[in-house]
Amino acid sequence: MSIVNQFLLLVRITRSQHIARRYFVVNGFDGALTMLGLLMGFYVSDSVSLPVIISVCLGAAIALGMSGMTSAYISEAAEKKLELRSLEEAMIADLRESAHGQAARLMPFLIAMINGLAPFAIALIIIFPLALAHWQPQLIAKPLETATFVAFLIIFLLGVFLGRITDSFWLWSGLRTLIVALITTLLIYSFSSI
Amino acid sequence: MVKVKRLVLDVLKPHQPNGLDFACTLAEKCLDCHFKFSVLEVDEQTETIILVVEGEDIRFDIISETINAMGATVHSIDEIEVIGSHATPES
Q1: What is the mean pLDDT of residues A108-131?
Q2: pLDDT computed for residue A132 by the predictor
Q3: Would residue B90 count as lying in a domain?
Q4: A5 to chain B: which residues are within 8 Å by CB?
Q5: Domains identified in chain A, total number
Q6: How far is A87 from chain B (nearest CA, A)?
Q7: What CATH number does residue B7 fall under?
Q8: Could you say which of A12, A95, A97 has the minimum Cβ distance to residue B17?
Q9: Is the dihedral of CA A75, A76, A78, A82 positive or negative?
Q10: Adjacency order of strands within the sheet including B2-14
């Protein structure tokens, strides 16, 4: 059996594709919404320089990535260990060297990578217009507004992706996540004006 | 020389990998064999299956190793068909 087939078998026996997809959406949404919150905060404060905004957003992106990676690894490793022990009791056998044992060791790592990289990558995409405006100011006239638009777009696309998974109407699903983003924006505005 | 032509195995396996993955993985390891997979009993976490293997020269060690690698165990060998011949294996 090729390495790819063996890997796909491990993913199937642990049903990790569903867990990874869920983590991708949940933590990706976290990343996008955090970036949106930061951008709105900078927008209402009105006098923050672009390098400061980029540094703060990048710092938050790295922290989100690390937090996602470590938290998912710790929880998934414990879950998979427990599942393996329960299966070993049912089978009355040592399964450490079987596909289940390999999956229990490998899958938490894979899920942790997805959980960490999803918010990090999404945050980087949102930060990209800011970085571009910093390096080439003539390219983007309003970097903060452009990055905010990218954040809204990604949040909408995550909703569309969720809609496709659940086989519901993509536009409604996208609009639903967009409404969440709009409520967040309104909340930031109201708190900032106090 | 003795060749194993048919085996009926009583196997206890976890629900995952499912029957299709299980049988396909076995078929990949034992290319000239014909496998028939039947579920006998289903429990909360395991299922008992009857695995019928037919072939010209079945290698039980490979089959048993592959079954174990998928987290399953051979409970018993219920039927065996072997054939003996004067022919010696080619070196």
Answers
A1: 95
A2: 94
A3: no
A4: 28
A5: 1
A6: 7
A7: 3.30.70.1340
A8: A12
A9: positive
A10: B34-42, B46-54, B2-14, B73-84
| B89 occurs within a structural domain | no
Distances in whole angstroms, Cα of residue B82 to Cα of each of B8, B27, B30, B32, B35:
12, 20, 17, 16, 17
Q: With residue B63 as reference, give the H or E element that holds it.
A: helix B60-69
Chain B 29-68, CB below 8 Å of chain A: which residues?
A: 29, 43-46, 68
What residue in B sits closest to A89 (Cα-Cα)?
B45
pLDDT digits (tens, 9 = 90+) for A42-76: 988 877 889 999 999 999 999 999 999 999 999 99
Please give chain B's pLDDT, 91 residues, in tens.
Answer: 889 999 999 999 999 999 999 999 999 888 889 999 999 999 999 999 999 999 999 999 999 999 999 999 999 999 999 998 776 555 4
Compute chain B's Rg from CA coordinates. 14
Q: What pLDDT is attached to residue B89?
A: 54
* Distance from C-alpha of B83 to C-alpha of B4, rounded to nearest angstrom: 6
**B70 in any annotated domain:** yes
Arithmetic mean of pLDDT over chain A? 91
Encode pLDDT of A23-45 as tens digits. Answer: 999 899 999 999 999 999 998 88
Task: Count Cα neighbours of A114 within 13 Å in the Cβ-side half-sphere.
Answer: 17
Query: Identity (one letter) of the amino acid at A86?
Result: S
Indicate if the alpha-carbon torsion angle A22, A27, A28, A34 is positive or negative. positive
Domain total for chain B? Answer: 1
What range does the domain containing B64 cover?
Answer: 2-84
Residue B6 pLDDT: 95
